[in-house]
Amino acid sequence: MGLPRMGRVAVPSYPHHVVQRGHDRQVVFAEAADFAYYLQTLAEFKAEYDVQVYGFCLMTNHVHLVLQPGERVAGLGQLLKRLAGRQSRYVNRQEARSGTLRENRYKSSPIQTDSYLLACLRYVEINPVRARMVSRPEDYRWSCYGQRVGQMDEFAWLDTDPCFEGVGDTPQVRASRYAEIVRSAIPPGEWEPIRSALQRGQLTGTDRFIDEVAAIIGRRIEHRQ
Q: Alpha carbon 81 to chain centroid distance?
């Protein structure tokens, strides 16, 4: 018998790093229209479920999202279920097939806003570079990086998180400084806690953040080995 599945942690009014993969890692986005349809759905449903979208990167067989639910945390899971269901129906119509495209469960990690949110956004947006699909994040169309640094306006529905607001006083200054952050060398040890927290369904943050979340949800989420 396998180990019991750990319950997913969701915290109201905090950003969450979310990953959902294609079923058996199969390709979900085969052409531009597939990517565009998914993002159109995300833009359409985010207000309905009271979820803010701070970041995204759509890879061929999985998506990275940085989402912040409102006071009703159930909206986060409901939005992701609706996204997966609609995308499956869309692709099935295109390919005259049936069945699910995405795994039912998604991985998520609440993010300590002041310390880790910008690092998580960089982690998400630099995925295509790490996968060697492009040499620069601005060369990848299906992430929010171009929108954030002012090189496109296709995703004007993207919400602006308070940490990004704090990068500069004007949109131009914020875009320039954030581009510098993404281009700068990644500090040693920055990515492993983000990746590990996501894989284990833990919190992306410090011990102080663990205390804050415990006070909010009434239980303590320790870092698990």
A: 15
Residue range 102-158, pLDDT digits in tens: 444 788 999 998 779 999 999 999 999 999 999 999 999 999 999 999 999 999 999
For residue 23, give Cα distances in angstroms to 26, 62, 213, 222: 6, 9, 31, 30
- Helical H segments across 20-143, by residue range: 32-45, 74-95, 113-125, 127-130
Measured CA distances, 203 to 71, 103, 222, 224 (Å) = 18, 22, 8, 10
Q: Residue with structure tokens 């998180």?
A: 161
Instruction: Break the chain into its structural domains and give their ranges.
Output: 16-208
| Residue 21 in tokens | 């993969």
Cα distance between residue 144 and residue 209, in whole Å:
27
Segments in the chain forming alpha helices (H): 32-45, 74-95, 113-125, 127-130, 145-148, 162-165, 171-183, 191-200, 207-217
**CATH 3.90.110.10 for domain 16-208:** no
Which pTM does this prediction carry? 0.88
